[in-house]
Amino acid sequence: MQKRNSSFIFVSDYLLFMTEKQDKILSAALELFANEGFSATSTNQIAKKAGVSEGLIFKHFKNKKGLLDALYGQVEGKLSEGFAQIIFETDPKKVLKITIESPFTIPSEDYDFWRLQFKLKWESDYYNPEKMQPLIDKLTWVFTELNYESPELEAKLLEQMIETIMVAILRQGKESQLALKDFLLKKYEL
Amino acid sequence: MQKRNSSFIFVSDYLLFMTEKQDKILSAALELFANEGFSATSTNQIAKKAGVSEGLIFKHFKNKKGLLDALYGQVEGKLSEGFAQIIFETDPKKVLKITIESPFTIPSEDYDFWRLQFKLKWESDYYNPEKMQPLIDKLTWVFTELNYESPELEAKLLEQMIETIMVAILRQGKESQLALKDFLLKKYEL
DNA sequence: AAACAAAAAGTAAGTACTCACTTAAATACA
DNA sequence: TGTATTTAAGTGAGTACTTACTTTTTGTTT
Fold this sequence. Notes:
2 copies of one chain form a homodimer.
Chain A: E1 6-11, E2 14-19, H1 20-36, H2 43-50, H3 54-60, H4 64-88, H5 92-105, H6 111-120, H7 133-145, H8 151-172, H9 175-187
Antiparallel strand pairs in A: 1-2
The first copy, chain A, binds a DNA duplex through helix 3.
């Protein structure tokens, strides 16, 4: 295995070998796409922010869209990480607690991933509500276990609440949602 | 006052005189900005969709951004319309009912206004949470009247719920949220 | 260890557009 | 006739991407 300036990242389910420059390009692109938008970001801006030549972007990625697709793979990885703890938990009350607290556990370094994800949700190519289904299924199980009258609707409601809290955190900061979190924890008797 | 092809629309608080061509330009821009994004939309695309010459856009609007600002004025108008009925209602239960049902009363012709609004919320120049304060204040009053324990948090929670329902309607269609609406009406005993 | 070749990574310059916007002349319409 | 609009051409800047070349790294041989 090679030992040069490089690192390993998980993109979806597979291991990808990447140089330091590639990493810099992806980081720069993430920041710009997440905050300015894909179309509003030029490859020249990305190159400058990454501290590389513009041509190098096209050496490592097929085109500008290919860069977005690589980032999207990383976004999906973040999402899976976010779910894993919830999916594998077996105590219904713990599931609820972890779920409600999940937006508050995301490190701020990951906020651009989430911003990009929410921006991309408005593009039909990238919007797939099925992706949230495992979480909704898990929550449905929780509300069934806890003998709620409409477990499926409770699950859907909570999933959408968590999403709107995450959006608000990204826009207004974590502090703006802390009271609401505690309020929800109380509502669900946690 | 001129009598040719024209109409009157309210932009924020004042009356704006507008030709049919201006209207077509704005409609085309709305559709494209809302669905493709501002940066991803060229003035040539707008002209073609509006069925006018590209030069005419710049006769009527200072620049591309000016077009967006004019649309934003209309977006704000739609928002005020949406609030008016709620703000002026004096029966707490009716306020809740109207609020929960409000995303479902929006005509689909207005969906692009709302799409644009949600897209623009990710731009700091256009994001202003204070705008929702009148609604939150009204709902706080409602929950106080109805003797809820934490009226302010209840109001905030509901406001965010309504927003996420509106987003889901825009993405997935009205039918996807009907069950949730009925569920909420039931939760609030309406 | 040193020398060299090959492979990989990276750069600067270039290419062929597209873009927002302007301008002047011509056309259309009431 | 006066006004609104179109047409056509143009401008200068910016865009995504390519190309030819350079630099760095890796592998092989001595």
